Amino acid sequence: MSFDYVIEKNNSTEKLTKAEEIALVNKISSDFKELDTQRASNLQKASDLANEAFFRNDFKSISDKTKKWKAKVKMCKTFMFYQTLKSYIWRNTYANVNSMFDVSGENQDSNNISNKQKAMLVDIFEKMEYQKTCDKVIDNALLYGELVSFTAWKKNYEEYRRPIDFFKNIFQEDLQKLPQILKAVETGKNFWVDKRKIYDNPYVYAVNPADLVFDTSQMDNWDNCPKIYRTYKSSSDIVNNQYYTLSDEQKKEIKSIIVSENPTTKNDIVKGSTIEVLEHWGDLKLPTGEILKNWHAVVVARKYLVEFHKNERIINPFSYGSFITDPETKRGISPLYCVLSLAHLQEDLLNRTCNLQSLTENPPLLAPEGF
Predict the structure, then answer these.
(1) In degrees, to the nearest 5, what angle opens at C-alpha 96 toward C-alphas 93 and 98?
(2) DSSP labels for 86-136?
(3) What is the pLDDT of residues 206-258, one digit of tens each?
(4) C-alpha–C-alpha distance, residues 207 and 316, integer Å
(5) pLDDT at residue 328 above 80?
């Protein structure tokens, strides 16, 4: 497979050689690893917070018999603050879609139809279940300190079953479906299944901040800032994706990745029955030094370049914000992280108090040596 790109200064088209393609795949993979390593401290803070908030740090079974009597109380303070802050944000921000924003016109004529425009936007938000998306965004933000979403166009279809006479009436002028319906009638079928579109509008997806890396030195120019978004897809979704360019040999290799991978081996490329997909958005710098403006490149399993072209979608589909910005890594920190050490201290004091009470009620007895 060959990929090409247009040089803007002379509008000429250049094709990527196989060596350049391999170098580009390696560059995108190494860039993701490097940018991910730079914010390792932020990921560790988020991991510590998640372990405490969702009770992953429960006291393990103590093998030392002399310590089994000690208290092991968890006060769940971090989880309490997590739920309290989330409910506060929900109540004051997105509990009611209609009160999230207002629409007004620039002049009298446009202002007269502003209510209709707002009603249309509210209807779209309700159909996409935007409040559920906000729930996911806030869940991620309370752990990672970053609010990230991805905007794209989405189409949803559903199948519905009706008596076959119902379809004969509504599709009597449809030259594509009518022959299929008549053929079903000839075979003696009384019912027929059809597919209809139920959603065809923009859609906002929640993005886990752990899966998005970007060049923080260029984040002031967010539209052009190089961003790499990591997702995991099944081999069938990758092979059957109409936007991906894959040879028959590459399709076979991708299908065999899951089978050949040892499930006990820790590997970032494979996650369960899915394969890692890295999507590069923004300005892309080729290994040769050439910079491609607003480019989209997709790498599968850090080995296959399956998409490489100028971004024909939204210029920048990612929205980004943070509660607290780390002055060193320029990535977000959760406001709940300050509660973590206080929660540990409070639990430690409570357990010490319980231990003291136990010793007071049942004081240790001293026995002579060899008793």
Answers:
(1) 105
(2) HHHHIIIIIS-GGGS-----SSHHHHHTHHHHHHHHHHHHHHTTHHHHHHH
(3) 999 999 999 999 999 999 999 999 999 999 999 999 999 999 999 999 988 88
(4) 14
(5) yes
Residue 299's CB is within 10 A of a number of other CB atoms, namely 24
Chain centroid offset of residue 323 CA: 18
Report CA-CA distances (Å) from 72 to 22, 59, 287.
54, 7, 56
Would you tell me how many other CB atoms lie within 10 Å of the CB of residue 330? Answer: 16
The pLDDT of residue 4 is above 50: yes
Separation of alpha carbons 194 and 164, rounded Å: 10
Q: Write the DSSP string, 292-321.
A: ETTEEEEEETTTEEEEEEE--S-S--EEEE
Q: How far is it, in rounded angstroms, from Cα 262 to Cα 248?
A: 24
* Residue 101 Cα to chain centre, angstroms: 25
Backbone angles phi, psi at 363, to 5 degrees: -65, 150
Residue type, 72: K
pLDDT, one tens digit per residue, over 96-124 is 998 888 888 888 888 888 888 889 999 99
Strands 146-163 and 191-206: antiparallel
- The separation between the first and the last C-alpha atoms of the chain, rounded to the nearest angstrom, is 84
Query: In this predicted model, what pLDDT tens digit does every residue of 133-169 receive, in sequence order?
Result: 999 999 999 999 999 999 999 999 998 888 888 877 7
Give the dihedral sign, CA 234/238/240/246. negative
In angstroms and rounded to an integer, the radius of gyration of the C-alpha atoms of the chain is: 28
Give the Cα separation of 322 and 147 in Å (integer).
6
pLDDT in tens, 22-58: 999 999 999 999 999 999 999 999 999 999 988 887 6
- Tokens of residue 63, six digits: 């093998």
Considering only 176-185, 314-323, 330-339, which range has the smallest mean pLDDT? 176-185
**What pTM, to 2 d.p., does this model score?**
0.85
Rounded Cα distance between 332 and 172, Å, is: 58
The token pair that represents 46 in the structure block: 């988020």
CA geometry: angle 226, 227, 228, nearest 5 deg: 130
